[in-house]
């Protein structure tokens, strides 16, 4: 195994000498309390992407390979959820919050997480993700799943698991405990959550060359009341749309392997309507509370809206979202337009936005607003993906089952690109860049160890007399400014040694030789808000 230290700047802080002398009776010139980012980058030469490793935490996020132009980026943190698949290409499949300059903020529980993001539940800022439950809990890598949506508060307490139970008919040989699918988990202003759910059903497939009682997936839209966990709205594509409108090739099906003709992958509540996206029909529908289709747009012929402008046509698309405009008779509608369904295809996936006139009128067809893609390093994503506007006018694209993330400027110029696994390996269903502020309910984590000389980046300023080092991290904390370091002979005689600046996810600092016990306190807004355990050396 090859490891090397990141080459981040070494920082030294002058600790008040009197304090030092008083507390540990130092006689030598150990007047500086040095600190550095102690992240290790690990690459063992396999197809596991280079990852970040720490001493005080066993979290191992990917080390993003980043290109940037230096132009303004939106503020916020990246939310990357990951799925497993054969050869995930990453050391650890887990949700991660990482800054756009590669500093880990939070590593979540190991396991698949889909649609990992920040959102508001009422006035509360929370993080949410889907995770599989039971034996039928496939991840998004195979296109669908059955599980629950977890809601964590801004101290990382799991405050709710949304377990929808619809008594779905399941593919032969599988069972489910919670029925929400991987694709959507949006909390609405009405204290409800929108989820997709994949039911197994039968349909007349004769117009596709199949039997009159063929097995299909009915990917339904569900709105769940978060107080009662009961569905308040259910919409079944099978009850409203002809199966033979699909672009997905029918090659036979049975109850073990139902035909996924519609493949619902996004739902947005818009007023009292629902915007529902079908990957396999290349269509997006607006449905009212009675379940009637009010209008639809088709990625090739435009549907109710008239002809799609050049370069605006789309297929196999994800994440349909209405963006309001200032006038009431038009909206912007955006998609992550995969535009391919086979990993062998090479056309670029795009961030597509159309300006639509409402109500639809073929005489005023859609106008192309964006068809963003990286012209220099195009990415072709056959599945999953996201396209979201950012506060400063930039947009963010997550490339789904291709391990890339790109931030575009307002005119479609690529300002920041990252890769987090080898091509065709790692995947994140969507990627968000969002504001998030959190103070964990648990303590900062502290480890004290003796530095081996070759890996000791603090030796120049710590002096050669002590090789004792502390390593502190606080998984998920966003607002730590510094750590106060306490040392002593015993837990009851701890005295402050001074402060160290926080350096990245994990801060390494030098400790005087002979130190018996150590503790650190995380400083936020100038005061210690939480202390680590007391560590005996
Ligand atoms: C590299 O790390 C991966 C993941 O920990 C492990 O499965 C693999 O065996 C390692 N390969 C080598 C050559 O050490
Ligand atoms: C669940 O569905 C099965 C088959 O459709 C049915 O026999 C059963 O009564 C249902 N159970 C509940 C609790 O609705
Ligand atoms: C699921 O499909 C079965 C038929 O296979 C049907 O009886 C049931 O009502 C469906 N459930 C929902 C929630 O649509
Ligand atoms: C598609 O299915 C509908 C409803 O069953 C039927 O009316 C229509 O003729 C079919 N279209 C084709 C091309 O077979
Ligand atoms: C079910 O259908 C799939 C797809 O057509 C096929 O590959 C598989 O062999 C079938 N399985 C059974 C048990 O018939
Ligand atoms: C757009 O505006 C309408 C009417 O004001 C509102 O109901 C809806 O929630 C808004 N939608 C979005 C996506 O902002
Ligand atoms: C857009 O339409 C053109 C012309 O019909 C076609 O060649 C192209 O494949 C379409 N692109 C997408 C992404 O559907
Ligand atoms: C970054 O730029 C290099 C060329 O300098 C290119 O090979 C690589 O693919 C780019 N990475 C991303 C994530 O776009």
From TrEMBL:
Pfam families: Arylsulfotran_2 (PF14269). Keywords: Signal. Residues 1-21 form the signal peptide. Transmembrane segments: none annotated. InterPro entries: Arylsulfate_ST (IPR053143), ASST-like (IPR039535). It comes from the Eukaryota. PANTHER family: ASST-DOMAIN-CONTAINING PROTEIN, PQQ ENZYME REPEAT PROTEIN-RELATED. This is ASST-domain-containing protein. It comes from Penicillium frequentans. The lineage of its organism: Eukaryota, Fungi, Dikarya, Ascomycota, Pezizomycotina.
